Amino acid sequence: MSQPYRVFWQPGCSSCLKAKEFLSDHGITYDSVNVLADDDGMAALQALGAKSVPVVSIGDNFVFAQNLGDLADFVGVARHSVGLPTTNLVERIDRVLAVAQSHVRQLPLDVLKTELPGRDRTYLDLGYHIFVIAEAFLVAANGGTLTFDLFERRPPASVADGGKVASYGQAIRDAVQAWWQGTDRGATLPDHLDTYYGAQSVPDLLERTAWHSAQHTRQLAAVLQKLKIELNDELAEDDLKGLPLPNHVYDDEVSLTDETR
């Protein structure tokens, strides 16, 4: 009997959820390993030589699954290709960040200080993370390397409520637009960007930035809806169309909203 695929993941990780759904959508079975709940699973991940999730492995071979094209190549299915033009992706990112600003302003402070199910991360951390995703893209776009540690960064003590997170978000939105204008609206983009999971094309990383931030924004919306707070703004179907978002808002092995009020 051949060895099964294994997916190493953690709750709240959008790319982890997408990787699992991608395999299921292609009829590929796998063993699910939540590295935050399984010490042996974390040891197995590290034994492969990987330090971050999502990782999909079979035997001693593995792939970082942030890039769906790389994952498709690894499991032998049709490769994913970016569906939206670069200009459209930049517009989508700005729209997503604007809605995230609205959501984080609406979340009560006691909820913002609550940890997400299965994670050592509060909803305030999550709101901040949405904008860190775009900031991390800018690090790579400006010649640096997008590291895993960037995605793990928590808000400083001065960013202690939703309004402060939204203000940080506005600075990131402005920086994305300044970068875009500086490329003559995409006319002078680099060939590739450096990330901890390998060199990525600008369209690939823009697409991941768009859907990654959109997925977490959907999570904030789900919490507001659970609290019966009417949304001041929300992502519409047209805002998400063409992005390879997960089907579920949170990992289907963990409930997002059970631990909110």
Q: How many strands?
A: 6
Arrangement of strands in the largest sheet: 2-1-3-4
Strand content: 5-15%
Fold-level CATH name of the largest domain = Four Helix Bundle (Hemerythrin (Met), subunit A)
| Relevant CATH superfamily of the largest domain | dinb family like domain
Structural class: alpha/beta
Largest beta-sheet details: 4 strands, mixed
User: Regions with pLDDT < 50 over 5+ consecutive residues?
Assistant: none
Give the N-terminus to C-terminus distance in angstroms. 47 Å
Task: Annotate the secondary structure layout.
Blueprint (H helix, E strand, L loop, with lengths): L4 E5 L4 H12 L4 E5 L4 H10 L6 E4 L2 E4 L3 H8 L10 H21 L2 H4 L10 H19 L3 E2 L1 H4 L10 H21 L11 E2 L6 H25 L10 H4 L21
Parallel strand pairs: 1-2, 5-6
Antiparallel strand pairs: 1-3, 3-4
Helix pairs in contact: 4-6, 4-8, 4-9, 6-8, 6-9
What does this entry show, briefly?
The chain has 2 domains: 71 residues, Glutaredoxin, CATH 3.40.30.10; 155 residues, Up-down Bundle (Four Helix Bundle (Hemerythrin (Met), subunit A)). The protein contains 10 helices and 6 strands; from the N terminus they run βαβαββααααβααβαα. Strands 2-1-3-4 form a 4-stranded mixed sheet, sandwiched between helices. Strands 5-6 form a two-stranded parallel ribbon.
